[in-house]
């Protein structure tokens, strides 16, 4: 009996890849509802040669998850296509925020934390020291918003100008709703255990050195360390990664079925019945779902409690507008800027793509809008021309760009980024407990559970297959 993977985004493709490695002779079917694999990863090369990334644009190297992705890239022979941004490049050093009508560079070096860098009214080190004296607060629910945690430990300016725009940049979400465990689980645990973060860090340094996970020392990883990459992409855009994964899967007899949606999932004794959009039924003894949690929840027959838990992990809509200008229109170099929500303007941020990865004489920018605030600014049926006009007005005000772009692409991505609101980890625990207690032959991976970045998603796929 075949194993079935639902969804052909990077989560489903990676799951099928690790599954094929683990079970070389098993029949594997991957079911993807759309006409292509890759999910939100979509790169479109324009005739002049520059790339519009319509979803994600860079991968991070840091940590075991970053190392794991690099290993996958190595195994797929994509190493020669890597376009790194080295850590001394302006795009690695200069990340900005737009506050009080101005662009400000965020502190990026050890020494810069000792200087006053507006919009912060004090040197960053003073906010960090605040942790030593701020009273500890035991949170009985063992979770709170990342905004309230940052405000309690470091002060309101850090919560407003550092954490809130960061959360907009990572998940287009509201730091006042997103769980502290989304990014700062260790810091939160330190405070809960030791009374402040500093004591927790000291304890880790003194007693927990050996707990560092082993690094996957591939040649590519050594090259990345030597050349000091901060983030990277691939020369034909990030979509090269899912495209190459798809090729590798087809070559290894994974049956990838495009344009076939899963319409319902029914557990039947120790098996699972998949009902497809073409009216067929497929029986499997194990289902791996990489679908967004709420989508899987809607497909479940019965199992009301599991259904409700899955449906409660919701996503936000994001509008991504790629712009190309024939000449140089930026007078500052950097990765781009993010906008703290308290500024109340209708964009999340802008990336300076042609600064990160230069191509020819022109300028490529991407404006991100919406997220948690999509309905507030755009309602539920905005026109493309209104969205474009909003983006152009904002880059004129903030960056002084009055030229009209010669090319643009407007992409409305519905329900594209899950929101790990307060209580998220608890929900995921309950989901896993339900699956175990009811002996359901179901494994879950993808961006809804253990992190929203590509590295997190690939690792979630590897983990479910390792644990199968
Ligand atoms: C605008 C944006 C910018 C981002 N930037 C970055 C970045 O710079 N770096 C980074 O690391 N991450 C970034 N991310 C996050 C990253 O792109 C995603 O987390 C990741 O691509 C999600 O992969 P996935 O496989 O979990 O889900 P998806 O990509 O959503 O894949 C799920 C797949 O399931 C299919 N599907 C849905 N329903 C059904 C059904 N009923 N039957 C069959 N198939 C179905 C869909 O068509 C889709 O192909 C960004 C995300 C967005 C939206």
UniProtKB/TrEMBL annotation:
Q: What cofactors are annotated for this protein?
A: FAD
List the GO terms this entry assigns under cellular component, sorted alphabetically: mitochondrial inner membrane
Presence of keyword Kinase: no
**Cofactor binding description:** Binds 1 FAD per subunit.
Q: Keywords assigned by UniProt?
A: FAD, Flavoprotein, Heme biosynthesis, Oxidoreductase, Porphyrin biosynthesis
Q: Which reaction does it catalyse?
A: protoporphyrinogen IX + 3 O2 = protoporphyrin IX + 3 H2O2
Q: Which residues form a coiled coil?
A: none
Can you supply a Gene Ontology BP term from the record?
protoporphyrinogen IX biosynthetic process
Query: Which GO molecular function annotations are given, in alphabetical order?
Result: oxygen-dependent protoporphyrinogen oxidase activity
The Enzyme Commission number assigned here is 1.3.3.4
Q: Which residues form the Amine oxidase domain?
A: 10-463
Instruction: Cite the annotated pathway.
Output: Porphyrin-containing compound metabolism; protoporphyrin-IX biosynthesis; protoporphyrin-IX from protoporphyrinogen-IX: step 1/1
Q: Name one Pfam family in it.
A: Amino_oxidase
Main location class? mitochondrion
- Localization per Swiss-Prot or TrEMBL: Mitochondrion inner membrane
InterPro entries tied to this protein = Amino_oxidase (IPR002937), FAD/NAD-bd_sf (IPR036188), Protoporphyrinogen_oxidase (IPR004572), Zeta_carotene_desat/Oxidored (IPR050464)
Q: Can you tell me which family this protein belongs to?
A: Belongs to the protoporphyrinogen/coproporphyrinogen oxidase family. Protoporphyrinogen oxidase subfamily.
Q: What does this protein do?
A: Catalyzes the 6-electron oxidation of protoporphyrinogen-IX to form protoporphyrin-IX.
**What protein name is recorded for this chain?**
Protoporphyrinogen oxidase
Q: What is the organism field in this record?
A: Ignelater luminosus
């Amino acid at each position: 009996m075949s194993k079935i993977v639902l969804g052909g985004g990077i989560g489903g493709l990676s799951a099928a890849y690790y599954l094929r490695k683990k079970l070389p002779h098993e029949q594997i079917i991957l079911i993807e509802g759309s006409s292509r694999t890759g999910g939100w990863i979509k790169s479109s090369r324009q005739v002049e040669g520059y790339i519009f990334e319509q979803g994600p644009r860079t991968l991070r190297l840091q940590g075991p998850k970053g190392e794991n992705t690099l290993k996958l890239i190595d195994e797929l022979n994509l190493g020669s296509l890597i376009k790194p941004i080295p850590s001394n490049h302006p795009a690695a050093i200069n990340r900005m925020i737009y506050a009080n009508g101005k662009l400000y560079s965020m502190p990026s070096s050890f020494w810069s934390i000792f200087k006053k860098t507006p919009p912060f009214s004090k040197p960053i080190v003073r906010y960090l020291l605040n942790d030593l004296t701020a009273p500890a607060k035991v949170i009985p629910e063992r979770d709170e918003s990342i905004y309230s945690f940052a405000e309690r430990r470091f002060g309101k300016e850090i919560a407003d100008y550092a954490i809130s725009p960061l959360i907009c940049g990572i998940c287009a979400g509201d730091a006042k709703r997103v769980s502290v465990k989304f990014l700062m689980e260790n810091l939160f645990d330190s405070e809960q255990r030791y009374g402040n973060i500093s004591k927790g860090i000291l304890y880790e340094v003194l007693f927990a050195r050996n707990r560092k996970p082993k690094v996957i020392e591939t040649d590519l990883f050594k090259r990345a360390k030597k050349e000091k990459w901060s983030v990277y992409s691939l020369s034909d855009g990030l979509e090269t990664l899912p495209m190459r994964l798809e090729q590798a899967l087809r070559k290894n007899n994974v049956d990838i079925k495009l344009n076939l949606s899963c319409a319902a999932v029914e557990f039947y004794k120790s098996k699972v019945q998949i009902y497809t959009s073409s009216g067929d039924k497929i029986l499997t003894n194990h289902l791996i779902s990489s679908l967004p949690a709420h989508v899987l929840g809607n497909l479940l027959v019965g199992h009301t409690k599991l259904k409700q838990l899955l449906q409660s992990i919701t996503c936000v809509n994001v509008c991504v507008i790629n712009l190309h200008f024939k000449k140089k229109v930026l007078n500052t170099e950097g990765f781009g800027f993010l906008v703290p929500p308290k500024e109340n303007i209708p964009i999340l941020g802008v990336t300076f793509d042609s600064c990160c990865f230069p191509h020819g004489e022109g300028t490529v920018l991407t404006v991100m809008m919406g997220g948690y605030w999509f309905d507030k600014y755009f309602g539920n049926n905005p026109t493309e021309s209104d969205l474009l006009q909003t983006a152009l007005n904002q880059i004129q005000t903030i960056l002084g760009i009055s030229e009209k772009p010669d090319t643009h692409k407007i992409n409305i991505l519905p329900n594209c980024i899950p929101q790990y609101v307060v209580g998220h980890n608890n929900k995921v625990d309950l989901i896993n407990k339900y699956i175990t207690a009811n002996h359901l032959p179901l494994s879950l991976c993808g961006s809804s559970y253990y992190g929203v970045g590509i590295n997190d998603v690939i690792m979630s796929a590897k983990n479910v297959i390792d644990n199968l």
